[in-house]
Amino acid sequence: MQLVEKHTVKEVTAHIRIQEYGPLVFNTLPSRSSVKKAIKKGLIFINGKQADSADWIEEGQLLEVFQLKPTTKHFKLNLDVLFEDDYVAVINKPAGYPTSGNFFKTIAKALPYNLKISTKNDALLIPQPIHRLDNPTSGVLVVAKTKSSQINLNKQLELKGIQKTYIAVVHNTPDSNMLFNDNIDGKESESKLEIIKTFKVKDDIYSLVELFPKTGRTHQLRIHTSKAGYPIVGDQLYGISSEKNKKLLLHAKSIQFKHPVTGNEVFTTSELPKRFEKLLNLS
Predict the structure, then answer these.
(1) Quick one: what percent of the chain has pLDDT higher than 90?
(2) Where in the chain is the domain with CATH 3.30.2350.10?
(3) What is the pLDDT of residues 77-93, one digit of tens each?
(4) Has residue 50 got a pLDDT over 90?
(5) What is the average per-residue pLDDT within 247-261?
(6) Angle at 50 between CA 13 and CA 14, to 5 degrees
(7) 164-252 maps to which CATH number?
(8) Which residues form the Pseudouridine synthase RsuA/RluA-like domain (predicted)?
(9) Is there a contact between 142 and 129 (Cβ–Cβ < 8 Å)?
(10) Class of 2-67 per CATH?
(11) CB within 8 A of 77, min separation 6: which ones?
(12) What is the DSSP string of the chain?
C-alpha cells in the first residue's frame, strides 16, 4: 500500500466518529460513503491500526489514508500527450481502442506508460480518464493524475463545466444548424450541430460538421445525428445499411475546462486524423 494522506487531530470539540470526521480533513475522501468504503478495504489507519467505522476521534490521533498498488500490467501503446502537469493530462486517443473496461488493450492501461508520475501526496497510482470516448472515436481525452483533481474534474463534468467540440462527416445535407434534444434511454440529452461545408463524391452527398454535446449519454452524437437523418459516415451501429466506409469519421477536436488547482482555463485541440483525408480529398 502507498500512503496518500495523513492528519493529526489537534482538537476535538464534540464526539465524532471517523466516518463523519474523515470528509472534513481528507481531500481524497470527500464524503462519508468514500470514507466507509476505504475503511471496509482496510485503507484507513488510526495510530497505526486499521480503523473501524465505529471508532471515535480523539485529540492527538494520527490518521492515515492509503491506496492499494495496482497489480495490472501496463499496455505499451504510444499516445500523443497534448498537455500534462502534476495534476492533470490531456491525451489524443487513437481510434480502435476502448477508453477503459475489462480488457487489456485499453487507453486507461496505456496511461502509466505515457504519463509522468505525479509528485503530489494524493497521486493516483494509475491515472484515470475523466470521461469516455467510444472505441472507434478518436480525439482529446482528459485524465486525472491526483485524487483531488479527479474529484474536481468529475464535479465539473457533472455540472456541464467541461466543453467538448467534435468534428464529423455525416451523410446528406442538414438544412441549417441544428439542435437535438431527443431522450436517450429515457434520459434528457442535448447536442448542437453546425455545418462547416457540404460536398459531393460521385453521387453521394456529405457534410463536414461540428458537434457540441451538452450532455454525455452513451453514443449520444451518433444517435442524435442518425435520428435526424444525417448519420455519421462509417457508423456500423447507427449508420446506413449500404455504408461503404468502415472507419467512423467522428473526432473529439477540442476540450475546455478549468484547471482543478489553478482555476485557469485549459483549452486543448487535436488535429484531424488521417482517416478523414481520403473522403475529404475526393470532394
Answers:
(1) 75
(2) 80-162+257-264, 164-252
(3) 999 999 999 999 999 99
(4) yes
(5) 97
(6) 10
(7) 3.30.2350.10
(8) 88-226
(9) yes
(10) alpha beta
(11) 94, 97, 105, 107, 110, 113, 114
(12) -EEEEEEE-----S--BHHHHHHHH-TT--SHHHHHHHHHTT-EEETTEE--TTPBP-TT-EEEEEEPPP-SPPP----EEEEE-SSEEEEEEPTTS-SSSSSSS-HHHHHHHHSPPP-STTEEEEEEESS---TT-EEEEEEEEEHHHHHHHHHHHHTT--EEEEEEEEES--SS-EEE---BTTB---EEEEEEEEEEETTEEEEEEEEEESS--TTHHHHHHHHTT-PBTT-TTTS-TT----S--EEEEEEEEE-TTT--EEEEE-PPPGGGHHHHHT-
Assigned C-alpha cell, 213? 454535446
Residue where the block lists cell 500523443? 80
List the one residue out of 130, 126, 7, 143 whose CA is nearest residue 63. 7
Nearest residue to 170 via CA among 221, 213, 233: 233
Q: Which CATH architecture has domain 80-162+257-264?
A: 2-Layer Sandwich (3.30)
pLDDT digits (tens, 9 = 90+) for 150-201: 999 999 999 999 999 999 999 999 989 999 999 999 999 999 999 999 999 8
202 vs 211: CA distance, rounded Å: 25
- In this predicted structure, the answer to whether residue 14 has a pLDDT above a threshold of 70 is yes
What is the pLDDT at residue 71?
59
Tell me the torsion sign for CA atoms 223, 164, 139, 135: negative
